[in-house]
Write a structure and sequence with these properties.
The structure is a single chain. By secondary structure, this protein is of the alpha+beta class. It has one domain: Lipocalin, CATH 2.40.128. Helices cover 22% and strands 38% of the residues. It has two helices and ten strands; from the N terminus they run H-E-E-E-E-E-E-E-H-E-E-E. The strands form two sheets. Strands 7-6-5-4-1-10-9-8 form an eight-stranded antiparallel β-sheet, covered by helices on one side. It is globular. The protein starts with a helix and ends with a strand. The relative contact order is 0.15.
Length: 143
């Protein structure tokens, strides 16, 4: 009888300890919230996941959805364009650029040429992926 009493007391103590330590309101990990595509400065990211730039300035752009415009720095010159965006699709058009002379305009022209081919985007956390169909054309990130 003494063994069954000890066993029951141990079982009861274990049950009480377990039920007291169990928190039914446990916090769950949340996925990283996505940032808005609009009103963020997006920096072009290279293959090694670092921001790409020319002449000590990062290639970047800011999208203003409310005005349907994008503006940025393309490596040597500043640029502006219009955007059309709906449900994961985005297109850039009507580009205008400053016309400064730079030693390596090809990199800038390549960036703008690729941007003109974009027709789809995805945001994951603080990263913006620009595609043509299912082909990733460029990756940008914000701070």
């Amino acid at each position: 009888m003494k063994i069954s009493t000890i066993f029951c007391a141990t079982l009861l103590a274990t049950f009480v300890a377990t039920s007291c330590s169990t928190n039914t309101n446990t916090a769950k990990l949340k996925a990283k919230p996505e940032v808005s595509i609009s009103n963020q400065e997006w920096f072009l990211v290279g293959d090694n996941n670092t921001v790409k730039g020319l002449y000590d300035k990062n290639i970047s752009m800011v999208i203003d959805e409310s005005a349907s415009k994008v503006s940025g720095f393309s490596g040597c010159n500043n640029f502006n364009a219009t955007i059309a965006k709906t449900n994961g699709t985005i297109t850039f058009g009507n580009f205008s650029e400053t016309k400064m002379a730079c030693p390596n305009l090809k990199a800038e022209q390549d960036f703008l040429s690729v941007l003109k081919n974009v027709n789809r985007y995805e945001i994951a956390g603080k990263e913006l992926y620009l595609y043509k169909g299912n082909i990733l054309l460029m990756k940008l990130k914000t701070t």
